[in-house]
Design brief:
heterodimer, A: alpha/beta, Rossmann fold, 12 strands, B: 17-stranded mixed β-sheet, 5 helices, 17 strands, about 15% helix, about 45% strand, SUF_FeS_clus_asmbl_SufBD_sf (chain B), Fe-S_cluster_assembly_SufBD (chain B), Fe-S cluster assembly protein SufD (chain B), SUF_FeS_clus_asmbl_SufBD_core (chain B), FeS-cluster_ATPase_SufC (chain A)
Chain lengths: ~250, ~350
């Protein structure tokens, strides 16, 4: 589904990704771990097409289509969902309005008919309930006044409504207490654990992987993947730390 | 008619371009234009409560009007305001007895020439009036609006400037008695330029005034709002909330002043002026002024000018919303709170629809 080949990228002229390659098949969940400054969030933003994250080499395809040629909104319509480490607050725009705009923009881009107001509200209600969010919260402005955990749950509601092929979730587990972690983990499983879906989980901790079991775990260091393995690799990291694997925090 | 216009060399007029007015004054109305069709163009305000409908075509009352409680004749109000003082023709007067209620909708159609119409609203104690005015067409529409609110009277005023070209000038003066309340909202969402001047005087204790709105400018448009709230009695509350949006080479200007007289203690005055630049070739001018002579008052003011938030734009894009739509959504959110204060739903919906039409164009 996703093919990243020898990807190089820089931010403000500083190289962050240095020849990253990764292949994710439909039906798979991949976890990317790594020390601070390794380039995990940069990878997420580069795939999402965030301005200021410049690709200097390599290729990325999603179902064979050149992802890097697409504008950010076109990547979303092509089936990419980026879960933000720090979801953005948008005063004056309700979650419902935001998501209806987004869902119908994606549908229009794919040549599908728009969802009616009633159909959309039914979908939103079902997805919100799945993440223990009330419709009252969905009517509030996007992420405004939400706690860290509520923002992450709201992101998963967005993912459920937009129903992407591939989700890249950047530290979706950060800021979550144990209950919220279970709710979010179950949400990822329910929405994305399907034969034609795939997930890349960017995380620091094993604990999310207890809820969403990865098929492969990769360790990112200095802008490239230095080790890949099964779920046991995450356990080894949790026990022994990066230093035991000969990796250091790039910022320290 | 000889016309003396203020000069851009005067401080209060330096952001306003009146240079096109003499040509419009010399023009004759276009009798061939279908005024009713023009009047029907903006979203209709389908308020069942409306009991008075006035249609002015080039300043002359159209026969389709239903004047209700309004009197059409010479108006017993004058101003020395530089533009408002030209409005000396016959106009309309709404004079409500204590406790009476009226809902007035006025549509002004211009067919290419100039017109000057005064209006006078007198509300006896506890009278309640809603006055909604819509401006469409081409030309110079110059209006003077004077309101006097008795004890406990309430006036809801909503004005939308939707000219296709030309200039709209509006001079509002309001005098608020004890416990009276004025909520006025102006929306500039047409393609013409405008100047809105307001002087609201809190003359009785515990009166409440909200005066504000949203001015949306693009192309070569110039919109300007210059509002003064004068607190001349204690325990008054005022809230001026304006939003200015400028695109292309347009200029949107906001000047808002709060004056608190020496004896107007316990005044609570809030001022919020925000500008949004959609292009770097556009201009937003913001001039907040506070002039406070009383010592026990609460006056808060905020003035900002900025661009759309890049993080929000990327967040919307990452969910599939294209850049033009994302900008429209965020711009709409920026102006929304200025229109939210319109109390009557049908009026608010019509104003929001006008703003949306501007944003989506």
């Amino acid at each position: 589904m996703l093919e990243i080949n020898n990807l190089h990228a820089e931010v403000d002229g500083k190289p962050i990704l240095n020849g990253l390659s990764l292949s994710v098949n439909a039906g798979e969940v991949h976890a990317i771990m790594g020390p601070n400054g390794a380039g995990k969030s940069t990878l997420a933003y580069v795939l999402g097409g965030r301005p200021g994250y410049d690709v200097t080499g390599g290729s990325v395809t999603l179902d064979g289509a050149d992802l890097l040629e697409m504008e950010p909104h076109e990547r979303a319509a092509a089936g990419l969902f980026l879960g933000f480490q720090y979801p953005v607050e948008i005063p004056g725009v309700s979650n419902v309005q935001f998501l209806r705009e987004a869902a119908n923009a994606q549908r229009a881009a794919r040549g599908e008919p728009a969802l009616s107001g009633a159909d959309f509200l039914r979908l939103a209600k079902a997805q919100a309930e799945g993440l223990s969010m009330s419709m009252d919260m969905m009517k509030r402005p996007v992420n405004v006044g939400f706690s860290g955990g509520e923002k992450k749950r709201a992101e998963m509601v967005q993912m459920g409504i937009l129903d992407p092929k591939l989700a890249i979730l950047d530290e979706t587990d950060s800021g979550l207490d144990i209950d919220a972690l279970r709710i979010v983990g179950d949400g990822i499983e329910r929405i994305m654990r399907k034969p034609d879906r795939a997930v890349i989980l960017i995380t620091h901790y094993q604990r999310l992987l207890d809820h969403v079991r990865p098929d492969q775990v990769h360790i990112l260091s200095a802008g490239r993947i230095v080790r890949s393995g099964g779920p046991e690799l995450a356990h080894a990291l949790e026990r022994e730390g990066y230093a035991a694997l000969g990796l250091e925090d790039a910022r320290s | 008619m000889t016309l003396t216009l203020p000069s851009a060399r005067e401080e209060a007029w330096r952001w306003t371009d009146l240079s096109g007015l003499p040509a419009i004054v010399a023009a004759v109305p276009d009798a061939g234009r279908d005024a009713l069709a023009l009047a029907a163009m903006p979203a209709a305000i389908a308020s069942e409560r409306t009991d008075t409908r006035l249609l002015f075509v080039d300043g002359v009352l159209h026969s389709s009007s239903t004047p209700g409680r309004v009197r059409l004749s010479a108006v017993d109000a004058r101003t020395d305001h530089a533009l408002g003082r030209h409005a000396t023709a016959d106009g309309w007067t709404l004079d409500l007895a204590p406790g009476q209620i009226a809902n007035v909708e006025v549509v002004h159609v211009a067919t290419g020439a100039a017109s000057h119409v005064p209006a006078h609203v007198i509300l006896a104690p506890d009278a309640v009036a809603s006055v909604t005015e819509t401006f469409v067409g081409d030309g110079w529409t110059n209006r003077f609006f004077r309101a006097e609110l008795g004890k406990g009277a309430r006036l809801m005023r909503a004005v939308r400037l939707l000219h296709a070209s030309g200039f709209q000038s509006l001079r509002d003066e309001a005098l608020l008695g004890e416990g009276a309340s004025l909520v006025a909202t102006v929306l500039g969402a047409g393609e013409g330029s405008s100047r809105v001047d307001a002087l609201v005087t809190i003359a009785g204790e515990q009166a409440f005034a909200e005066y504000g709105g949203a001015m949306l400018a693009r192309g070569e448009q110039r919109h300007e709002a210059a509002a003064v709230v004068r607190h001349a009695a204690p325990h008054g509350q005022s809230h001026q909330s304006w939003r200015a949006v400028a695109d292309d080479r347009a200029v949107a200007s906001l000047a808002a002043r709060v004056e608190v007289a020496r004896h107007a203690q316990k005044t609570d005055g809030i001022q919020s002026l925000k500008g949004l630049l959609l292009k770097r070739t556009a201009t937003v001018n913001i001039k907040p002024e506070l002039e406070i002579f009383a010592d026990d008052v609460k006056c808060a003011h905020g003035a900002t000018v900025g661009e759309l938030d890049r993080q929000s734009l990327f967040y919307l894009a990452s969910r599939g919303v294209d850049p033009a739509r994302a900008r429209a959504i965020l711009t709409r959110a920026f102006v929304a709170d200025a229109l939210d204060r319109i109390g009557e739903e049908a009026v608010r919906d019509a104003f929001v629809a006008d703003a949306d039409r501007w944003l989506d164009a």
